[in-house]
Design a protein that fits this description.
The structure is a single chain. It contains five helices and 18 strands. The chain is α+β, with helices and mostly antiparallel strands. It has two domains: 119 residues, Diaminopimelate Epimerase, Chain A, domain 1, CATH 3.10.310.10; 145 residues, Diaminopimelate Epimerase, Chain A, domain 1 (Roll), CATH 3.10.310. It has an 18-stranded mixed beta sheet that branches. Strand 13 and strand 14 form a beta hairpin. It is globular.
Length: 287
């Protein structure tokens, strides 16, 4: 039997890392296999998998797989990596491309300095991902109170293709994110679960944040989370655009237009490329 090689590319955006895999795998990406590939001791190791198909003529399609086996609608960091990957590897001859995701069409563009600007679409502060705000014309979810883990929080809900619960905090380091994150992520208000961001305004157009990613845990950066935080800062504080968002892994520049169109600019870096061993492929096929 001829061994079918599986090539992969490992990338990161401000420390939030992904394995990029193209369609045509000799196995299905089941939740168990995704977890095995993402495992940092027994697998390649990552915060998720970017699984893509298509081409420049017919369009690209990107799926985001989380380490717990769940799917994400969109990933801001992932889109910066994917856009630069497509351009660097020659899959896209243009530095700007259109990518179809489970959240709709998103447009990354590789800039001359190597950074990537992503047009994320229009944010909303309601919708089907929060109970009670699913209908058109319903009130925005600003300053909504909830109880979790024996505490009361006031949050702003932002949907940028995926759901975010944004909470202001005076001291980010004091937040017990490992304890609070899982409870807030799975709160009854969020039927599709939610990413959770704690934010602190640190300047006229600057915000610092920590993030608990849905299906992942705390990460060094979250592009869609930075977008959600910038939107919340604009709506709650009247902050000017662009907003510099400080994350553990570095900074992102987020533009929020008056109509809530969001654009994110930041780095993406290739770490290495590789080929899965026959032994590893056989092991994950058994899962």
């Amino acid at each position: 039997m001829v061994f079918a090689q599986v090539e992969f590319s490992k990338w990161h955006g401000l420390g939030n890392d992904y394995v990029i895999l193209a369609a045509g795998l000799p196995f299905e990406l089941t939740p168990e296999r995704v977890a095995a590939i993402c495992d940092r001791h027994y697998g390649i190791g990552s915060d998720g998998i970017l699984f893509w198909s298509g081409n420049e003529a017919e369009g690209f399609y990107l799926q985001i797989h989380n380490p717990d086996g769940s799917r994400g609608e969109v990933s801001g960091n992932g889109l910066r990596m994917f856009g630069k990957y497509l351009y660097r590897k020659g899959f896209s001859r243009s530095a700007g491309m259109t990518v179809n995701t489970d959240a709709g069409i998103v447009k990354p563009a590789v800039l001359p300095d190597g950074q990537v600007r992503v047009s994320m679409g229009r944010a909303c502060l309601g919708g089907k991902s929060i109970v009670g705000y699913e209908g058109a014309g319903r009130s925005e979810a600003l300053g909504v109170r909830l109880e979790a883990a024996g505490e009361e929080f006031e949050f702003t809900f932002v949907d940028v293709g995926n759901p975010h619960c944004v909470i202001e905090a005076d001291d980010l380091e004091a937040i017990e994110l490992e304890r609070l994150g899982p409870v807030l992520e799975r709160h009854d208000l969020f039927p599709h679960r939610a990413n959770v961001e704690f934010m602190k305004v640190t300047g006229p157009a600057e915000v610092s944040m920590r993030v608990w990613e849905r299906g992942v845990g705390e990460t060094s950066a979250c592009g869609s989370g930075a977008c959600a935080v910038a939107v919340a800062a604009r709506r709650l504080k009247g902050m000017a655009s662009p907003v510099t968002v400080h994350l553990a892994g570095g900074d992102l520049q987020i533009e929020v237009e008056d109509e809530m169109e969001v654009h994110m600019t930041g780095p993406a870096e290739e770490v290495f490329t590789g080929v899965m061993s026959e032994e590893f492929i056989n092991r994950i096929k058994e899962l």
